[in-house]
Amino acid sequence: MITRQLGQTAIMVSALGLGTWAMGGTWWGGTDEAEAVAGIQRALDEGVTLIDTAPAYGFGLAEELVGQAIRGRERSTLVIATKVGLVWHTEEGHHHAHVDGRHIMRNLRPLMIRHEIEQSLRRLGTDYIDLYQTHWQDPTTPIAETMGELLRLRDEGKIRAIGVSNASVAQMQEYLAVGRLDACQPKYNMLDRDIENDILPFCRAQQIAVLSYSSLGMGLLSGSMSPDRQFPEGDVRRGNPRFSPESIRRVNAMLARFAPIRDRYRLDQAQLSIAWTISRPGVTCALVGVRNAQQAAAIAPGGRVMLNEDTLAEMDRIMAASS
Ligand SMILES: NC(=O)c1ccc[n+]([C@@H]2O[C@H](COP(=O)([O-])OP(=O)(O)OC[C@H]3O[C@@H](n4cnc5c(N)ncnc54)[C@H](OP(=O)(O)O)[C@@H]3O)[C@@H](O)[C@H]2O)c1
Known about the structure:
With 323 residues, the chain is α/β, with parallel strands linked by helices. It has twelve helices and 13 strands. The chain has a single domain, classed as TIM Barrel (Alpha-Beta Barrel), CATH 3.20.20.
């Protein structure tokens, strides 16, 4: 597994990180808990060291499953990344979403962060978090106050590194005005490349690690999604035009043109999509979600390969011709 430095910290992470959003079940039409735990353990056995989770994934469930999966493993070999700022027990803050009968609020106030970290530590069964990330930015709390609290947590040893997710360059600049920011987690994959214009160059210049999310386009870039795929009630992909039969067919047609590249590197399409992501300049780590051990084993080889510049250019030409 390729490993990389997390920003300017002393933390090394696998270039393929395990995502646990779907394992929480919320937004993904449910989960199988035993299969999820087996999936996390399989990913670790394959050499993945970074696990990304969040309280909001299954209202605490995903963090608990990570806690179960890592029990008995040497803690210092793991990089546990979780998030803060989406809460469902208060009406204070900024409305984020209404899911499974609960109001989710964005709230990054210092007192809330204090409360939330203790909940996450308990669910994860650990006494420190390697990377603590603000999940969605909260317009009702000044960033300086949020960052001040995160820095205090770092000084106390409860967290080792500070990250942001779904943040603009201007927001990252506000964090940086208060202290060192170690990581940023934006959406990035072959179909969502906007961050190449601003966030990626900014993070490279500032030595901020970039952890891409939805690296497989929520499964669409695996190449194995059938145009007839039916998404269950509660799956965020249901009714989303990107997952319509025509759209899946169009993406699959583009992916089919990568066949010679897949053959050259001996990768399947999901693995090639991951290798593409971690080969892009400025990307530290590709986060990929799985539901079970089979998917965890299937994606692992994608974290062991770097594509050369000629291949990246060849893929860019195919993408441009397919858009
Ligand atoms: N910070 C944020 O706001 C944010 C937002 C989104 C995600 N994330 C993080 O990033 C992680 C990754 O993103 P993501 O989970 O949204 O999407 P993703 O990694 O692009 O796609 C994950 C989905 O792809 C399918 N899949 C996985 N391996 C496969 C394989 N080998 N072959 C075929 N299909 C496969 C599975 O869904 P099916 O089996 O159902 O098809 C899986 O749930 C998340 O888990 C989470 O940790 C963060």
